[in-house]
Amino acid sequence: MAQITASVYSSHVPLIGVAIDKGMTQEEYFKPLFDGYEPGRDWAAANTPDVVILVFNDHANAFGLDIVPTFALGMSETFEPADEGWGARPVPTVVGHPTLAAHIAHSVIQDDFDLTLVNNIPVDHGCTVPLSVMYDQPEAWPCKVIPLFINVVQYPIPSGRRCLELGKAIRRAVDSFDEDLNVQIWGTGGMSHQLQGQRAGLINAEWDNAFFDRMVNDPEDLANMEHVEYVREGGSEGIELVMWLVARGAMSDLAGGAPPTEVHRHYHVPASNTAAGQLILEDNS
Amino acid sequence: MGLDKPYLDIPGTTIFDTDQAALGYHLNMFAMSLKDAENRELFAADQDAYLDKWPMTEDQKQAVRDRDFNRILELGGNIYYCAKIGATDGLNYVQIVSSMTENDAEAHRQMMIDGGRSPEGNRYLHEWADGDPAARKERGEH
Fold first, then answer.
1. Which of B80, B102, B123 should one mutate to test binding to chain A, selecting the residue with the greatest count of A CBs within 10 A?
2. How far lies A94's CA from each of A45, A185, A229, A258, in Å?
3. At what angle do helices A227-234 and A205-217 cross, to 10 degrees?
4. What is the pLDDT along chain B (142 residues), one digit of tens a residue?
5. Does residue B35 belong to the interface with chain A, where contact is any CB pair within 8 Å?
6. Which 75-134 residues of chain B touch chain A by CB within 8 A?
7. Distance from first CA to last CA of chain A, Å, rounded?
């Protein structure tokens, strides 16, 4: 049987990818950020899954305004890194898991989540930067990846509650897949940042750290947070943090199991315009 | 009855909602086209000719020519789409983002290293009644 064994929460700032791609991680600006990633990389090397369900948002690279799906699941065998305007990142092709993706689609749609199913679609920094954070610069990514795109760019975007419930539905889907697979789910984006307007550059470390605590200890309550609070307190692009709730919803404590074990937490300001955060939770089903 | 938009009470922030998306459809799709290298070359070679291929308003085209990102967002642009205009100019995100603020890129970079812009005094429109950070900076205030 397939099983979700852990959840990872990670910023996906483009500059973090640039630093890895260009060998800048030991420079003064980046060193504290990457030193804090070391324990996560050690954990990742010792706990490589068969498949990662990677929750992120597209940033005007795969979807335009012609089609704006709230939730879109990547069904393909492969996903190429996108050219986002600066040239494509020199990272491996992301290899999907079509049979598990098909199973999740079948189960989750019947569980009342209207997923859009997508093939032949590029993946941008939202997907590839978290992989680089964990796996550095391999010839090939060490696991299969099922991309799950969440619209957090054009409002209305899904509520925190809807994201948490989607995570629960994904857990039910994975639980009913017959093949023995070790599956992780990663929620990405955030933490506080604002990339636009006269208020750009906003960072709220106090709010971010409270968000970590609530994510670990009380996700059901955190799921009630309104969008406007994310924006007011965590910046307009801090809204990406709703995607962390999808990953949290897939932990078994929300289906009657024991609370997850916190393995690692890391927080650093800045990565470009953003507060970078990372959290790793092991499931205890 | 209008829709509830509580985010309109946050200063210096434009939320890209369906109304903004309707205003900015052509503007954003122009910007998104710059994800393709050959389009970046065409735009760089003859900006006006490239802009004229898109049914954007004259105000939107002028905001693009001016690289006035605050105006671009006001006219329906979204930052992820329109950052590709900056990418075509060879700018990074700190340079693009700082152009919308009271700081130049170096001062903005330093502000981020120092912990970023505090949310204190930046949560509600009424807190900016005496002017936005650029106006306050001009008056010699913080």
1. B80
2. 18, 15, 34, 33
3. 140
4. 678 899 999 999 999 999 999 999 999 999 999 999 999 999 999 999 999 999 999 999 999 999 999 999 999 999 999 999 999 999 999 999 999 999 999 999 999 999 999 999 999 999 999 999 999 999 988 6
5. yes
6. 78-81, 83-84, 87-88, 92-94, 96-98, 100-103, 108, 111-113, 115-119, 122-124, 132-134
7. 13
Residue A267 · residue A191 · CB < 8 Å: yes
* Separation in Å, CA of B75 to nearest CA in chain A: 13
H or E segment and range at residue A79? strand A78-79
A225 near A267, Cβ under 8 Å?
Answer: no
Please tell me the number of Cα atoms within 13 Å of B141 on its side-chain side. 9
- What per-residue string of b and e applies to A243-261 under the rule 16 or more CB within 10 Å gives b? bbbbbbbbbbbbeeeeebe
Cα–Cα distances (Å) from A55 to A33, A228, B28, in that order, read: 22, 22, 24
Is A134 in a helix, a strand, or coil? helix
Of A236, A272, A280, nearest to A13 (Cα)? Answer: A272
Q: Do the Cβ atoms of B108 and A202 come within 8 Å?
A: no
Q: How far is A136 from chain B (nearest CA, A)?
A: 22
Is the pTM above the cut of 0.95? yes
